[in-house]
Amino acid sequence: MSVVNSLADQDFEQLSIRRTEGGFASIVAVHDTTLGPALGGVRIRKYASDELAATDAMRLARAMTFKAALAGLPLGGGKSVVNADPFSDKTRDLLEAHGRHIGMFGGRYIPGADMGTGSADLEVIGRYVPRVSSAGRDPSPYTARGVVASIAAVASHLGRDVEGLRVAVQGAGNVGLGIVEQLTARGATVLVADPDPVRVEKAVESFGAQPSPLSDILHAEVDVVCPAGPGQVVDHAVAKRLSAVAVVGAANNMLAEPTVSAALAARGVVYVPDFVSNSGGLISCEAEVNGVSDFVDRVDRIGEVVLEILDYARVVGVDSDTAAVSLARRRIAEFAAA
């Protein structure tokens, strides 16, 4: 499906693509602003084509719409992407060019940190836009906290407790390492894998995790698989081989395609949509933008949202991704009609 067809089929409000002086594609996608301005991270990543970069921006923006709605936030869904290598191509000129592009939206899109960007980058971009998030507070610990709350909710749904669970965490970056720390503190046994052996070593030495080969982590003999690195890692082949009874992660767009959710449900595997489980970071960003200091209890309530979605999916007879999107769309429609 082309980007143009996706815009119409998924009810996107706006997609803007500009070329920087260095020839890199600067892409801003705004999916829906019914609930408020779109908030989403700035992702700098090298894609095989600008078409793929735009498609990813749109997928991520759409997920942000549902994430904000289910978290009860006055925000819409947006995302921006620069098709460039964050290590060799990211310069101040590139960030300024992307900032000027975002500035054309007049505040309808609020940028934050994402893959390939951090608080220092947001400070540069912030010179050209009305507001940014993630410039003063790292959302990673709250993303991790929300994922662990989601795992705890799934454990309760299965008649279990976090203590004694076996969890496989794929990715030991800022969020993944936070998940490992919190799970081990609650008595879970955690397997961890990451392309960077230094990260794995830190998880093992600091928090007592068990190392696992990266190629085996999604098929490990565990209760829960937790993708916390790149997206699109759970495809139909992985779904067929899973030993885990649940998939709960931090990675955005962790499913390779939407139909994998139904495949997991058919196997009896509990799946929590990533735009629910990883929404703690967005809650933190919204609080930062609006000057709210007391927000951690809202992150902890992500578990209640998870249970609501799983119960709705069971009653209606649909997979959890379909249930979550349905509930999110309902909340947006109710707000628009009020």
From TrEMBL:
BP-aspect Gene Ontology terms: amino acid metabolic process
Coiled coil: none
Location of the active site: K79
The keyword NAD appears for this protein: yes
Keyword Lipid biosynthesis: no
Pfam families: ELFV_dehydrog (PF00208), ELFV_dehydrog_N (PF02812)
Residue ranges annotated for the Glutamate/phenylalanine/leucine/valine/L-tryptophan dehydrogenase C-terminal domain, each copy included: 137-338
SUPFAM superfamilies reported in the protein's UniProt record: Aminoacid dehydrogenase-like, N-terminal domain, NAD(P)-binding Rossmann-fold domains
Keywords from the named record: NAD, Nucleotide-binding, Oxidoreductase
Gene3D superfamilies registered for this protein in UniProt: Leucine Dehydrogenase, chain A, domain 1 (3.40.50.10860), NAD(P)-binding Rossmann-like Domain (3.40.50.720)
List of residues binding NAD(+): G171, A172, G173, N174, V175, G176
Domain of life, source organism: Bacteria
GO molecular function: nucleotide binding; oxidoreductase activity, acting on the CH-NH2 group of donors, NAD or NADP as acceptor
Stated family: Belongs to the Glu/Leu/Phe/Val dehydrogenases family.
Name of the protein described by the UniProt record: Leucine dehydrogenase
Native source species: Rhodococcus tukisamuensis
